[in-house]
């Protein structure tokens, strides 16, 4: 039972960590959500902004000036939280691999292996909370920006909605949290 639970938690943690990494690296945290006849599809990410021509599929991206340049707070905070979540999830995966019962490392001391799994669960939980805060922070900021423009009757021609990278970050963080709960609460 314990080995099956460990492998399930490891699989979920691995998939969720990949989701977090993809969310951090990809460019569609915000997408244009106009229902008009658009000839281009615009995505804004944490690192650059991309435009795809819908007629011929050509995609062009503009890198943001510099990592150290003045950026909006939502980008800086989300970058920081997502990178920290990625690092914590990666460290938790390394500890979890060494703590799995099916791995021969420290096979003669099951108490240490169990503590490694528990520690991996705690680290994974911390990473999942940071990733969820970063993803939700960005989504709420996009919503508030749009609501403020609507309340002031300002129409800029393009209106942005949550992109798939934002949803991927939320899904990865939630999966890491569930794996953390399995490792910290259910394993003992």
Produce a short descriptive summary.
This protein is an alpha+beta fold.
Describe the structure.
Helices cover 62% and strands 12% of the residues. The chain is of the alpha+beta class and 188 residues long. The chain has one domain: Butyryl-CoA Dehydrogenase, subunit A, domain 3 (Up-down Bundle). A five-stranded antiparallel beta sheet has the order 4-3-2-1-5. The protein is elongated. The N and C termini lie close together (11 Å). The relative contact order is 0.22. One of its GO terms (cellular component) is plasma membrane.
Layout: helices, strands, pairs:
Blueprint: H1 2-25, E1 30-32, E2 40-44, E3 48-53, E4 59-63, H2 73-99, H3 110-151, E5 160-162, H4 164-186
Antiparallel strand pairs: 1-2, 1-5, 2-3, 3-4
GO molecular function: structural molecule activity
Subcellular location: Cell junction, Tight junction; Cell membrane
Signal peptide: 1-28
- Output the strand order for the largest sheet: 4-3-2-1-5
Helix % is: 55-70%
Number of strands: 5
C-alpha end-to-end distance: 11 Å
Number of helices: 4
* Top CATH class: Mainly Alpha
- Would you give the CATH topology? Butyryl-CoA Dehydrogenase, subunit A, domain 3
Give a short account of the largest sheet.
Answer: 5 strands, antiparallel
Cα gyration radius (Å): 20 Å
* CATH architectural type: Up-down Bundle
Descriptive labels:
62% helix; alpha+beta; elongated; 5 strands; membrane; 188 residues; cell membrane; single chain; transmembrane; Claudin; Butyryl-CoA Dehydrogenase, subunit A, domain 3
């Amino acid at each position: 039972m314990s080995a099956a639970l460990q492998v399930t938690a490891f699989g979920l943690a691995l998939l969720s960590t990949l989701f977090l990494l993809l969310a951090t690296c990809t460019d569609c945290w915000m997408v244009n959500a106009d229902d008009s006849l658009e000839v281009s599809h615009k995505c804004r990410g944490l690192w650059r902004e991309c435009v795809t021509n819908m007629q011929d599929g050509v995609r062009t991206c503009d890198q943001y000036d510099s990592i150290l340049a003045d950026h909006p707070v939502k980008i800086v905070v989300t970058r920081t939280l997502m990178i920290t979540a990625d690092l914590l999830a990666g460290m938790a995966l390394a500890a979890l691999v060494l703590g799995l019962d099916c791995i021969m490392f420290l096979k003669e001391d099951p108490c240490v292996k169990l503590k490694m799994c528990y520690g991996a669960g705690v680290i994974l939980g911390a990473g999942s909370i940071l990733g969820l805060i970063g993803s939700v922070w960005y989504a709420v900021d996009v919503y508030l920006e749009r609501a403020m423009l609507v309340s002031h009757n300002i129409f800029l021609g393009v209106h942005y909605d949550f992109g798939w990278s934002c949803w991927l970050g939320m899904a990865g963080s939630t999966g890491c949290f569930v794996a953390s709960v399995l490792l910290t609460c259910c394993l003992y």
